[in-house]
Structure formats: structure tokens, C-alpha cells
């Protein structure tokens, strides 16, 4: 998606050869017009799939997922990192390993909002090691719903998450895949 | 906003005489069409104000704030509950007291995205004790920006947060104000 790649080139900030900061438009400050375009692009790519629900994880996946849900005309569901005090009843849980914090935590959704009749599109802002996506896939599996695919705004192609998901036979659509952040340059695949 | 009140009546769940669960359309599962209508309504109410930025707090404020930002054509900024490892540099901080957890925590935004030239509209999904709003107001004050007002989807009118904000001279626009949840009934003001 050229609009996104241009935005990453213009506004992304590199920290070393591993971290790309896009908090001016994606995951702290948010550019609503860009989110709307991203929503349209994911909807276009998955429009043949009869998606019934968009699933993401709080917090920075929510904006993207909302625009996808709006375009597809289906509800959006976000997994919570902590079980809310008002989240009564049965939940579906997935495990997410955090490499930066070196710990495993649970994410969960209420079982009321996901079931075997659903065809789920997972949406997230970033894909690197793939742990958030794997946790969301675990939730989809636990709910007996069907998984239509995973839509990612920015995939770090030099980290193994995307490769692993595709090896599992999952359709992964990434709007920008970064091949390298070395030598202070952003190189797309 | 009648559409919202109807939705609350139809899909809201009461727990005792104090808790209204709206996690089927607002803060766990999200109804994108409703969010779009809510965004339009806030934009209509604040269109004379020359808003330059919409500010909210993760996670459940993000969806509403995004649609307001889209309608007003301005960026959305969400305060984080934990300082992210990639959030370098100066931040503006506000304090939020959690009554359910009986603790005070900091919320913060990067100083890059808020400054004295901004006219800020604070958006949140719920207003009860008003602590999240007060924390966001503290951030706006610390940044020297102007505060245009506070937009709330559901205000619990029987708790003191809204009254306190209005006493401070702040314009508060709530799309649905709940007067009482007693006797298993939702009564709007």
C-alpha cells in the first residue's frame, strides 16, 4: 500500500537497526484519514471471505480494526490484556509471550462474542515475532470459529512471525513489509 | 442521542444498581456503525470550536475518539497507562485514581504531540467519578494547550464526576446521561 509506505518513510523514526517508531500516526497519535484508507484496503483484500467479525488486541490494534469493521459492516472485538472486573462468565483465552518483558501473559475475550458460526479476520498494527497474532489465533481456535486470515499494517519481514504464520497455512496480508532497518534506512520487501 | 439510548436500553446489562455493562457494543465488542454516528454527533456539537486534536485514554476511548477525529479532520492522541519502552523523550503526565482498584496511576502522552497551539477535545466512553477525565485535563494543562471541552458517550449522572467537571467551568457534552440504575431499570436524565 503505497500511501502507507510513503507515510512510514516520511514520518517513521528509526531507533537502532530494529525499532521503527510510528507513534506519530499509528500507535500513539493516530491519523484517522490514513486509518480509513487502511480499513478500505483490508476490506478490499478480504471482501470475498464473508467475514463476520474483526478481532484485535488492545490498545493499538483497535483503531485499525474499527475501520476494517466499518468497511466490512461487521462488529469488532478486542481482546483484553487483563480480565476486566466486569467481564463475568466464560472467556476464551490465549497466551502471548512478550520478548521485551520476557514474560507470558493471558489475553481474553468474552465467549459471548465469538462462536463456531463466526468467520474471523484478525487485525493488528505490527507483526514481528508474531506472539500477539498467535494468542489471538488460540482464542479463535478455542471458540471453534473459523479463521479467515490475519491482516497486519506493518510486518517486520526480518523477524520470524510472518513466516511462521504462513507456514501454519494462515493467510497473512501485510500492507507494508519491512525487509531491513539497517544503516538507518527503511527498506521494504 | 436517541440512537444511543435505544441501544443502551436494548443491549445494556445491569449488574446491581451501579454497574451498566455495554460491552456488546462499546468497550469490548464494538459496533462500528454506532461509533460512526457517535463521531458525527460529537463533531456536530464541537464544530464551532476549531478543535486541533482529540485526546482520549486507552483502551476503550480509542474507537470513539477515532471517529470524532475522522469527522473533525484532526489527529487523535491516546494517553497510555504505562510508559511504553519506545516512548522516549519528554512526556506530559496526569494522575488517575482508580476507585475499583484503590490506587493512583499515571497516564502520559509524548510531548511531541500536544502543545500550546492546540485546542483539545477530550473524548471518553464513560464518565462516573471523573478520574480519567481529570487526568487527561491535567495533561492538557501541562502541555499549555487550550481545552475546548469533554465529550462523553455515557455519563452516570448519579456519580459526581460530571458535576465536578462542570463546576470547574468545563464544557461537558454527554450523549446519554443516566439518572438511575435502581430497581433494575435504566432511567435517563
Largest sheet, spatial ordering of strands of chain A = 5-4-8-9-10-11
Low-confidence segments of chain A: none
Please report the number of helical segments of chain A. Answer: 5
| Major sheet size, sense and barrel closure of chain A | 6 strands, mixed
Helix share bin of chain A: 25-40%
**What is the domain tally of chain A?**
1
Rough outline of chain A: globular
For the record, give the distance between the C-alpha atoms at the N and C termini of chain A, rounded to a whole number.
12 Å
CATH architecture of chain A: 3-Layer(aba) Sandwich
User: Got a strand count of chain A?
Assistant: 11
Write down the CATH class of chain A.
Alpha Beta
Largest interface: A-B, 39 and 39 residues
Mean pLDDT of chain A: 95
Question: Which fold name fills CATH's third level, the topology of chain A?
Answer: Rossmann fold
The H/E string of chain A reads HEEEHEHEEEEHEHEE
Rg over C-alpha atoms of chain A, rounded to the nearest angstrom: 16 Å
Oligomer: homodimer
SS class of chain A: alpha/beta
The fraction of residues assigned to DSSP E strands of chain A is 25-35%
Amino acid at each position: 500500500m503505497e500511501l502507507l509506505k510513503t507515510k512510514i518513510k516520511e514520518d517513521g523514526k528509526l531507533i537502532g537497526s530494529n525499532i521503527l517508531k510510528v507513534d506519530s500516526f499509528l500507535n500513539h497519535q493516530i491519523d484517522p484519514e490514513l486509518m480509513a484508507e487502511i480499513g478500505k484496503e483490508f476490506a478490499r483484500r478480504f471482501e470475498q471471505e464473508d467475514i463476520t467479525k474483526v478481532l484485535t488486541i488492545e490498545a493499538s490494534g483497535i483503531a485499525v480494526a474499527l475501520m476494517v469493521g466499518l468497511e466490512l459492516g461487521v462488529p469488532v472485538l478486542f481482546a483484553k490484556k487483563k480480565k476486566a472486573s466486569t467481564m463475568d462468565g466464560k472467556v476464551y483465552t490465549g497466551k502471548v509471550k512478550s520478548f521485551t518483558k520476557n514474560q507470558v501473559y493471558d489475553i481474553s475475550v468474552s465467549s459471548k462474542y465469538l462462536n463456531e458460526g463466526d468467520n474471523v479476520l484478525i487485525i493488528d498494527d505490527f507483526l514481528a515475532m508474531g506472539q500477539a497474532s498467535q494468542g489471538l489465533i488460540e482464542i479463535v481456535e478455542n471458540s471453534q470459529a473459523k479463521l479467515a486470515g490475519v491482516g497486519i499494517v506493518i510486518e517486520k519481514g526480518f523477524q520470524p512471525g510472518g513466516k511462521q504464520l504462513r507456514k501454519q497455512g494462515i493467510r497473512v496480508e501485510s500492507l507494508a513489509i519491512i525487509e531491513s532497518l539497517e544503516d538507518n534506512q527503511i527498506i521494504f520487501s
